[in-house]
Amino acid sequence: MFSKALTATALCVAFIGPAHAFDLKGLTDSANKAVSDASDRANSATGKAQSSIDQASGQFKVAGDTASLVSQLTDQLGVTKTQAAGGTAALLSMAKSNLSGNQFSGITDQVSGLTGLLGSGESSGGGLASSILGNVQSLKGVQSAFSALGMSPDMIGQFAPVILKFMGSEGVAGNLLGSLQSLWAPAA
After folding, report:
1. Angstrom distance (rounded) from CA 5 to CA 158
2. Among candidates 65, 68, 94, 64, which has minimal Cα distance to 81?
3. Which end of the chain is more exposed for a tag (fewer CB within 10 A), N or C?
C-alpha cells in the first residue's frame, strides 16, 4: 500500500512537471523597468509642453511701454519675463472681452505694446495670448492661464495692482482703471 502511494506520488510529479520557484528578482526588475518607462514618457511629455511654451513665448516681442511693465512685474514679483508677459496678456485679454471697443482702445492708445502682446497689430507671430492662452474671457480663464504659466492663481491679486498703477502712470483714464479694477476685483 505504501508503494502504491509512492508510485502515485511519483506519477503526479512526473505529469505535473517541475515546480517553478517564485522569482522575486525578475518581478522586481520588471516593475522597475515599467516605472522607468513611465517616468521617461512623463518627462518627455513635460519637456514637449515646456518646449511649446518656450517656442510660443519666443514668437512675441515685448515692446514699448509694455516692456517697462513686464520689467516691473519681473522685478517686483519675482516672476520670469514669460510669466509677467503671459499674466499681463491673460488679464488684458479678459479686459478686452469685457470692455467696449472704445474703452479698451483707451487703454491700448496710452500704453504702447499692449496690442502686440495680445496678438494684433504690433507683433508678428500671433502674440502670447493667442498662441498660449487662447481667448481668456473670465477670471476663471485668467486663473487657468496663470496655472498654465506655472504660477498660482493667487498671483493674479499681485499682478492687478502693479498693472493698474503702471497704467495710471501712463495716462490711462481713471474711469478705465476703475473698470479694470472692478473686472479684476475678486483677485485684487
Report:
1. 85
2. 68
3. N
